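During the first year of the project, the team set up a workflow for recording each protein of interest as an amino acid sequence followed immediately by a discrete structure-token representation. This format lets reviewers and collaborators read both layers of information side by side without switching files. As required by the reporting guidelines, we include two representative entries from the current panel. The first entry is reproduced here exactly as it appears in our internal archive.
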Amino acid sequence: MPTLTPKQAAGLTAQFVLYQLGLFVLVGGAQGLVAGLRDQHAPATKGIEPVAVMVVNTLAAFLVLRGQLRKNNLPWVDFFRPRAKWVQLLPVFLLIMIGEIVLISEASNGMQAVLPPPAWLREQFSPMNDLVGHPFSAPFTLIVIAAVTEEFLFRGLILRGLLHRLDPVRAVVLSALLFALMHLNPWQMPGAFFIGLVFGWVYLRTRSLTLCIAGHGLHNAMSLLANGLPFTVAGFNQAHASNVVLFQPWWFNLIGIAALAFGAYLFNRMAPVLAWIPPVQKIEPPPLPVSASVADGLAGKI
């Protein structure tokens, strides 16, 4: 993977966002044209369509990744090469994810209580959570496409590149910050930053993109499937009006803290710190000294 400075990592994040915005304009225009040709009297679609997000995220991530791989003459297979025995870590990682999901849910409640999101923003993202209207495209986009593209970009490319230039703590924090800013949504940024820290730490311990993708997909899946769980908790999956904020009970938050702490403790024991070895730079050896008599002899033979 290429070596990245903080400025270059920020530039790649901005490039990804700009690709997304440009592609959204193209895809949105194409969708509107097709809808107009089919039925000129049909009402305009409200919100961001999951299919559009699927296409845009995939193309934007592909363009950024392809550009860096071509620039550094690296193969795509480098992203798919396993770097740790991640299967045995799955149960402990699941415990971490349970704690992370509970705590981010409560953090989101607090964010909405302090700064309620506008109605137009909720309307824009409503199709992404509509399993009735989009039974396949919504879950596939959130659980698979978003998880794969964003983890390949922010853990597979940006974090790995930063680790060649920065110490691990600074690299993980910076990659998490860029991941949060990429969402362009103040109500998502605190949770995205925390997720970036968790996945950055996991990647640092395992070098496994598979775990990060699985965790990312599970986190996104919970936003769709929480209402179908066999239990109901206020502030987590209890139905309520969109303009009302409910907070989770203290015991539920305590379960989240305990799951996250205990899971991190076990994960720390099972996946000890791996030394990050920067790419080896080829250094030409200095020329051997040549005595004056040898030099004169060589000059006479030329």
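The second entry, processed by the same pipeline in the following quarter, appears below.
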Amino acid sequence: MRFASWLNELPFFKKLAFGIATVGGAGLTPRAPGTVGSLVGAIVFLWLGRLSWTFQILFILTLVVLGLWASKVMELETGREDDQRIVIDEVIGMWITVCSFPPSLVWLAIGFVVFRFLDVTKPFPANWVEVRWRGARGVIFDDIVSGIYGQVLLRAIYRVYGLF
């Protein structure tokens, strides 16, 4: 049975969870769903990134709570612990990487490349979190770690160029 027809048979709260976990279906792309999820996060940042850093932190925390719930529901429903269709974690990691930066295309592009590199290579402790923390926690928190590394690296790049 195809994913879409199977999804239609689920109750509303499970459909909502799948929508959040896949970021409105961005995770359903057949190739590089994590990259697509990060791109969605970058686009939303262009729209909301001008708001205060306090709002951005609250937004990230809200996404973490929703992402943990949605990822757990999707995991229980599909039987897959780290389903590649879950991309809310990439949105969170991308936002952590670029949080409080000016929403310019240049810094967003640099942040995107930095985050994707870190998300793919998973430097310690992101790799440890991914392996040791099973289920939704591992899915979300390894990208949080990569996002924190991304924020630090992006700040270093920002300072080197004398812009901060």
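For the second entry, the following points were noted during internal review. The chain has a mean pLDDT of 88. The two ends are 53 Å apart (CA to CA). Both points are flagged for discussion at the upcoming steering committee meeting.
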